[in-house]
Amino acid sequence: MALPTINPTTTKAWEALISHYENIKNVHLKDLFKQNPDRAQTFSTVWNDFYIDYSKNRIDQTTKTLLLDLAKEVKLEDAIQHYFSGSSINETEERAVLHTALRAPSNKNILVADKNVVPEVTAVKEKIKQFTDQVISGSLTGYTGKAFTDIVNIGIGGSDLGPAMITESLEFYKNHLKLHFISNVDGDHVHQNLKNLDPETTLFVVVSKTFSTQETLSNATTARNWFTDKAPKTEVGKHFVAVSSNIPNVTAFGIEEENIFPLWDWVGGRFSLWSAVGLSISLSVGYENFEALLEGAHEMDEHFKTAPFEDNIPVLLGMLSIWYNNFFKAESEAIIPYSQYLHRLPAYLQQGIMESNGKSVDRSGNKINYQTGTIIWGEPGTNAQHAFFQLIHQGTKIIPAEFIGFKKSLFNDQDHQDKLMANFFAQTEALMNGKTEAEVQEELKSKNLSAQKLKQLVPFKIFEGNKPTTTVLIEKLTPKNLGALVSMYEQRIFVQGVVWNIFSYDQWGVELGKQLATKILNEINDTTISEHDSSTKTLLKQYLN
Ligand code: F6P
User: Fold this and answer.
1) Crossing angle between the packed helical segments 451-461 and 437-445, to the nearest 10 degrees
2) The CATH classification of domain 99-290, taken from the options 1.10.3720.10, 3.90.1150.10, 3.40.50.10490, 3.10.270.10
3) pLDDT in tens, 133-146
4) Considering only Cβ atoms within 10 Å of each terminal Cβ, which end of the chain, N or C, has fewer?
5) What separation in Å is there between the alpha carbon of 543 and the centre of ligand 1?
6) Cα-to-centroid distance, 267 and ligand 1 (Å)
């Protein structure tokens, strides 16, 4: 069964949103708050440990109704059914999209081509658990009998960003094992990481769904050579395991079948951290924490599947993003976690969001005439405040921003936590209210400035405000809440892809560069430059000289 193919711009709701936008585009958030004293209650939702406040967005009740009408008109409800039930919604690759099955309870029945996939998922989880326990306890050792001390994850894209982001986010929960991530084909990256490692106590986890990715195979080969330079060749099997769906390629590389953790074609790379791709996560924080991560994601999946659209967090956030992208013509969105642990979250979401929804052909194969694919960027607060917040506050662009914060800190340093959260709340308030000319005048009065200086300064000190933000306030950074947070974004990607009538689960756009790089590498190896534009040709000559 295929997803519906409805051009969103042909819906009644889209047309209504265009004219509604004209009514609301100049309305100030401050006035919306004055008009409705209960606005915070009207536009917020509570779910488990999450409180989502979307009241500081440039919407009113009509906006919300129309956005949800749009979701209904493009048949989002049907699409959700297809997605969770294992239909081949990744049509261009003829695959189901079932990362949700990876975190479903073991008694579920989820069919792909008439076969229940849950037993296989459960078996791989058991393998992850056993392996994790053995490595952490030291009962599984390297070739000289010493316990492992260092884990090196070799992978790129979804085979790196997910495990890297989660292990850094859960650093508080980690054990004695030291984690290293090698992704870039830049040789300095792999050699820098290998430099201080001890082959006797290092375990390599080579993660590649296809096991054909140039970067990963090059890095894995370099790591294996490094190992066999120092240790007997016959011991590779004790120090290299793989996560892949391409068993023949892995065994050809020299990793034994029993050391392969499989995954399936219905798990997309950027949605794979819940599979054996998350082996490094499990090794780093223990299997129980890995399972708690999955449990949190599953609870969010259930919320997404069953909650009415009015209170459905991924639906609301996805539709808000569409509101800014397609009606306000916002060029980008910022994601600002107020937690240093989450410093890799924006980079992780860049792949999730931009590789999924950066498409310009619709589900019928036609060129699209509206904007898709939001541009995501961000850094943790408060650091971000001292870097790019100037532009959000006083620049010319509208940048909807999501603020993610936790009520409790992990080390319980209340002084720091209060300062952090004071900034967290202050920023969304400041972005909304801004500062008027009268307020600036009043503030400058006490400074004893000359009338001329005062007049000169005023325009620079005015903040227009009316900058939209959404606040995601979570009880505490736990594995379970982190799982729910990541799932929230995954489901939001789905919502936006359905509305934009695009295929969110393929990534043909990364192919062209790969093909050209292979051709150019051959030319570099042969030192013969073939036909290129004059720019590329000259650059290659410069390099070869
Ligand atoms: O860059 C494209 C991509 O296919 C990503 O989608 C994926 O996460 C990454 O490459 C790595 O792929 P693999 O796990 O097959 O090595």
Assistant:
1) 140
2) 3.40.50.10490
3) 999 999 999 999 99
4) C
5) 28
6) 11
